[in-house]
């Protein structure tokens, strides 16, 4: 008997590329991407007009600061978060009565500035209080004018009423870039 040479069968690799491609497509189609949830904030429209005089502008702005220690400062003075909403409402509805607050509701601005070390929880609490202040003054105005709170006005049927309330109390919530303010 002679030496018989056994042929080792080879694996056909021709379809490997097809299988890899199908697996790649399968994983791309079935994988879901995690979309981060953030705050929906509308940016103000671009304006061509120059900024107003800074001394007059100072009165129109309510400065709200949150430092790295999560301490709230309003106009440079410490304040508890439970008093923030009322202070913002007083600023928005002042109409020139208090010389330290805004002259009119249409010019009133609330400026929110935080430190890089501010906790997200504190930032959200302050942001929610300021947003609630805008909603509360809009509700009060809407109740006086239309007998119905602003938050209950129907966007489909009461567009003009909503527009009137927003013109009287425009939401001017300015957010500055976080910096290191210290503790």
Our measurement of the CA-to-CA distance between the termini, rounded to an integer number of angstroms, reads 94 Å
Shape: elongated
Query: How does the major sheet shape up?
Result: 5 strands, mixed
Q: In angstroms, what is the radius of gyration?
A: 29 Å
Mean pLDDT: 84
Instruction: Note the beta-strand portion.
Output: 5-15%
Order of helices and strands: HHEEEHEHHE
How would you describe what is shown here?
- The chain has 183 residues and is α/β, with parallel strands linked by helices.
- The protein has a domain at 54-134: 2-Layer Sandwich (Nucleotidyltransferase, domain 5).
- Helices cover 39% and strands 11% of the residues.
- The chain has helices at residues 16-30, 54-60, 81-92, 120-146, 159-168, and strands at residues 61-66, 72-74, 77-78, 109-114, 173-175.
- Strands 3-2-1-4-5 form a five-stranded mixed beta sheet.
- A hairpin with a 5-residue loop joins strand 1 (61-66) and strand 2.
- The model has no long low-confidence stretch (mean pLDDT 84).
């Amino acid at each position: 008997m002679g030496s018989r040479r056994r042929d080792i069968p080879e694996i056909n690799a021709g379809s490997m590329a097809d299988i890899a491609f199908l697996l790649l497509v399968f994983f791309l189609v079935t994988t879901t991407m995690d979309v981060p949830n953030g705050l929906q904030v509308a940016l103000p429209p671009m304006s061509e007009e120059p900024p107003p005089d800074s001394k007059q502008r100072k009165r129109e702005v309510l400065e709200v600061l949150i430092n790295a220690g999560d301490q709230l400062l309003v106009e440079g003075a410490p304040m508890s978060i439970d008093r923030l909403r009322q202070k913002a409402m007083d600023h928005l509805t002042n109409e020139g009565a208090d010389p330290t607050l805004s002259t009119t509701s249409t010019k009133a601005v609330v400026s929110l500035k935080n430190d890089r070390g501010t906790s997200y929880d504190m930032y959200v609490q302050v942001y929610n209080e300021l947003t609630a202040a805008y909603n509360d003054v809009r509700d009060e105005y809407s109740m006086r004018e239309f007998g119905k709170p602003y938050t209950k006005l129907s966007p489909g049927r009461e567009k003009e009423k909503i527009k009137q309330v927003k013109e009287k109390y425009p939401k001017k919530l300015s957010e500055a870039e976080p910096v290191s303010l210290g503790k």
